[in-house]
Specification:
The protein is mostly helical. Helix content is about 55%, strand content about 0%. It has two domains: about 15-55, no CATH class; about 60-145, no CATH class. The chain is built from eight helices and no strands. α7 (about 120-130) packs across α8 (about 135-145).
Length: about 150
């Protein structure tokens, strides 16, 4: 490793390079690549009965937690304003309890994308179909037919 820089300027290694700097050499080692994060090890290995699921950044339609918080905030903003802190706390709890769970909606978005629908098509299918976690292939065909103009 003599003569290698510690890292490329601004952590910007050239695409496809594995030996341009010491940092890239270390990051491309099989044991380093296979290492799970501490959180994933704790959830999967130590708890044994849980799944550690990471969502892509900024894909709110795939993450039901983002949809849930968005719905809670909308509900809270539309509720009457209160000056009393205890009443406000009760209102927040009521808003949290009143919002439905969004896991099935997120699962339908994931199913739509995996079946080749675009973002607009997936959103349209999600508004039309409210069944199980996956979109049936007949629904996908219906979406493509309905949106062909």
């Amino acid at each position: 490793m003599a003569g290698l820089r510690a890292q490329c300027d601004g952590f910007k290694c050239e695409a496809g390079q594995t030996g341009c700097c010491c940092r890239r050499v270390m990051f491309s080692q099989p044991d380093f690549v296979a290492q799970k994060s501490h959180l994933e090890e704790y959830v999967v290995i130590l708890q044994k009965c849980h799944i550690c699921d990471f969502y892509p950044k900024f894909h709110c339609e795939l993450n039901f937690i983002e949809q849930y918080w968005g719905a809670v905030k909308l509900r809270y903003r539309s509720s009457p304003k209160m000056a009393d802190m205890d009443a406000m706390e009760c209102n927040v709890i009521a808003c949290l309890d009143d919002v439905p769970f969004y896991a099935n909606r997120s699962a339908r978005f994931i199913s739509a994308y995996s079946q080749g629908l675009s973002g607009g098509e997936a959103a349209w299918a999600n508004r039309k179909y409210h069944g199980h976690r996956t979109l049936p292939s007949s629904m996908v065909a219906k979406v493509k037919k309905a949106l062909q103009i």
